[in-house]
Amino acid sequence: MTSIRLITPTLEYASQLNAYKNEFPYNPNGIEGSSQLALVNSIEDWLNRVEKNRHWDTVQEDRMPAEQYIAVDKRDNTIVGMLNFRKELNEYLLNYIGHIGYSIAPSKRRQGLGTIMLKLALIEAKKFNLDKVLITCTDDNIASAGVIENNGGILEDKRVDPGDQKLTRRYWVTL
Question: CA angle 90-94-98, nearest 5°?
Fold first, then answer.
């Protein structure tokens, strides 16, 4: 049995969310799977954005409705990762980003947590009536490719993302 659970973030985790954000070096694209946590001024603002982005009528322009999760270690109630699940894909998401984005706290990497988180996300994905999900990673992210392959990901192809010019691996996982 895993000690990790995926939950919807709440203000209760504000200090941990800030600590998570601060554990990553600055990246203008933010932290993978975090709904742009690194780019907001306050956790309250971020939680409001996350809630708005769950619904079609309030989702940010050019985005698709998504569920945001924090991965919490049940043993000590600490955040070890974050995961974003997009319920539908637009053309750009279909070609380069996929349904699921995730990150692991740098201090918690190389412990198999990504594989566990993605497994839990695939269970959650079944609630959205999908037969399969698309998960991507950059071609040089061997750790993420391993996480996806460990969860049944089948590589469809590799494409150059016009946004960052990086080669992206596209995997499908049948639910």
Answer: 105
Dist. CA 173–CA 175, nearest whole Å? 6
Q: How far apart are CA 58 and CA 54, in angstroms?
A: 8
List the pLDDT tens digit at each of the 175 positions of the chain. 579 999 999 999 999 999 999 998 877 677 898 998 988 889 999 999 999 999 999 988 878 999 999 999 999 999 999 999 999 999 999 999 999 999 999 999 999 999 999 999 999 899 988 999 999 999 999 999 999 999 999 999 999 999 889 999 999 999 9
HEC per residue, 81-149: EEEEEECCCCHHHHHHHECEEEEECHHHCCCCHHHHHHHHHHHHHHHHCCCEEEEEEECCCHHHHHHHH
What contacts 172, CB < 8 A, 6 or more positions away? 132, 133, 134, 135, 153, 154, 156
CA distances from 156 to 56, 96, 100, 108, 171 (A): 29, 12, 16, 29, 6
Cβ(38)–Cβ(18) below 8 Å: no
| The model's pTM | 0.91
